[in-house]
Amino acid sequence: MGTAFSIDTPIKVARYGIHSVISLVDDTLIEQMRQFYCEQEGEPYRPITKHDEDFRARRITAYLDLVNRIVQRQFKELKESPFEPGSEITKYFEMLADDSVLKAAWQHMLACPDPKLKADLQKNLRESIRPGDINVNIMTKLDRNNYDTQGAMLPAEFSDALAALRGYAQSTLQSAIVFSAGINRRLYSYAEQFKDFYADAKGNIKKRIILKVSDFRSSIVQGKFFAKKGLWISEYRIESGLNCGGHAFATDGFLMGPILEEFRVKRQQLTDELHKIYNEALKLKNKITFAKPHEVKITAQGGIGTHLEDKFLRTHYGLNTTGWATPFLLCPEATNVDRITLEKLAKAGEKDLYLSDVSPLGVPFNSIRDSLSDIEKGLKVMRGRPGSACPKGHLVSNTEFTEEPICTASRQYQKLKIDQLNKLNLDESEYKKRFEAVVVKACICHDLGQPALIANNIKTNVPGFTAVCPGPNLAYFSKIVTLNEMVGHIYGRTNLLNDTPRPNMFIKELGMYVDYLKKELGKSLDEINEQKIKYFTEFKNNLLEGIEYYRKLFPQMVEESLEYRTKALNDLEACHQRLLAVVEEFSVAFAASPTALAAA
Question: Which of 48, 401, 418, 423 has the most CB atoms less than 10 A away?
Fold first, then answer.
């Protein structure tokens, strides 16, 4: 959910047993939030400045420890609150799923006529509850090397990702770290150095590892990498490649349904294979081995919008849990969104939400049209000074003009690139196309942090303009809601969907993949080659296999109405016809023979 939106979500919801994730990208924002909450909580605040040794890791540790203390205090107060209407502990139990064992026990207590027995039941209930986890996330691709004041590169452990890992590892938290966006070998190897990532003699792991993955193969590859180091992956979190918020890492046409099916079928194989490697590594490290594998959770997120979709994922695929993110942007009790952006999100329709090219990483980025960040970016272009001052630099990666990497959204890069374009004597249309490709990039590592500052009235010396990265699922939610209402929607007690016809989550993703394929074909047609033909052919075949899978799957959604299942199948056929039309339109990109390639 970007950097700001959930930076303090545990403080807002963890006491109610709700798990959430804090991004560790932006240590400047983290330090600003630490100062804010120290003042709020009456705790002493000692700044950790950029001139202090190992400041990034220390900022992260200090903030996470502060959040942990606040949540523990909140939870203690909740446990001690009376069982009466409107109390914190009542709110905890009211929000539980209706089929929860704990909720049934709470309802039994409420109906108990015997005061002594009722008091005993209340004591048991207080002892049975726990707060939500304060989890963290490292986007593995954001691993900038850092330099000292003399310009010399610091050792690898001071890179952005490794310093963030160290900051979490040295914190007091007992939770999980989520690694997303692919393999980072030096980051993964660095985890070996911290004891909290290893299981104790009873098999408990203080700091668990969660991998956000796009398919089964990547889970095996990454799981083995950690297992060979004696580290266990506690959860594989499957996220839709396109039907999600933030950066969208498209698969090669592999759809979420077939991916979940492979996990369902091969789940035991995954656990057994990794357990063997894991034990062998523990032996080499002279650590205790385990006769049985530790728990492995399989979870999913991305585009879930209704209680029945959520329930089907859990029951049909045997998922342990599911994740909801984008709809919570409309819940001020859970996330930070400034008022102007909140109103834009509430009014957003399908056409307002799109995959943009604003990310300096060169990865498609889910955006909303006319965000404050985009408006300011356009004004800078009109003033003849495109680009950002690059106040944080977490996304620096380009060395086209400089020895030290710079960000493609920076004023420095965009000026150099535009100067280069001006010397090429391009025709007007080609110049405009290339110019737009340069200035479209946005300073998202700074602008994604703005909502927390604006929402909490935190003053900053470096002004920013809110960027926001909702998934397409937001188009079907329009109401600004309370936490209780949002939880009620997830558990099927209420319906927060607006009147916009909403397709099944699998259909929505499939349609996005057809659009994505068409866009990629359009960009590649002038430079088609054997390798691209192979890629596009495999992409198309994977989509066709996914469509065939869904033809058999949708009739199994027996808790949905017949009308719903019929519509899903009709929508599936419409997507199939759209795909066939794309294949026909760009037939040259799916040719199988070198002869056809030469003719093109």
Answer: 48
Q: How far is CA 56 from the centre of its chain?
A: 22
Q: 319 with 487: CB under 8 angstroms?
A: no
Question: DSSP labels for 417-444?
Answer: HHHHHHTS---HHHHHHHHHHHHT---H
CB 322 within 8 A of CB 299: yes
DSSP label at 41? H
Distances (CA, A) of 459 to 6, 15, 134, 450: 19, 28, 26, 11
pTM of the model: 0.95
Question: What SS3 class is residue 267?
Answer: helix
Strands (E) in 302-362, as ranges, are 321-323, 353-356
Q: Please tell me the distance from the alpha carbon of residue 210 to that of residue 177, in angstroms, as a whole number.
A: 6
Residues 6+ apart with CB under 8 A from 306: 492, 497
CA 4 to CA 331: how far, in whole Å?
Answer: 14
Residue 149, both tokens: 């004041």
Query: How is residue 60 written in tokens?
Result: 């992260």
**Three-class SS of 202-217:** CCCECEEEEEEECCHH
Say how far apart CA 547 and CA 257 lie, in whole Å.
10
Contact 260, 313 (CB under 8 A): yes
* Bridge partner residues of 205 (DSSP): 199
Q: Averaged in consecutive runs of 10 residues, what is the pLDDT profile of the chain (600 residues)?
A: 92 98 97 98 97 96 98 98 98 97 98 97 98 98 90 94 98 98 95 98 97 95 98 97 94 97 97 98 98 98 97 98 96 96 97 96 95 96 96 94 95 97 95 97 95 93 90 97 98 97 98 97 90 95 98 97 97 98 94 44
Q: Does an H or E element contain 98, and which? A: none
Decide: 465 and 484 in contact? Cβ < 8 Å: no
Q: Strands 365-368 and 353-356, how do they pair?
A: antiparallel
Task: Tokens 């029945």: give the residue.
Answer: 308
Please classify residue 268 by burial: count the beta carbons closer than 10 Å to its beta carbon, then call 0-12 exposed, 13-18 middle and 19+ buried. Answer: exposed
Question: For residue 279, how far is the Cα from the chain centroid?
Answer: 31
Report yes or no: 60 and 168 within 8 Å, Cβ to Cβ.
Answer: yes
- What span, in angstroms and rounded, lies between the C-alpha atoms of 554 and 567? 10
Inter-residue contact 223 to 510 (CB < 8 Å): no
CA-nearest of 457, 498, 499 to 481 is 498
Interatomic CA distance for residues 324 and 313, integer angstroms: 13
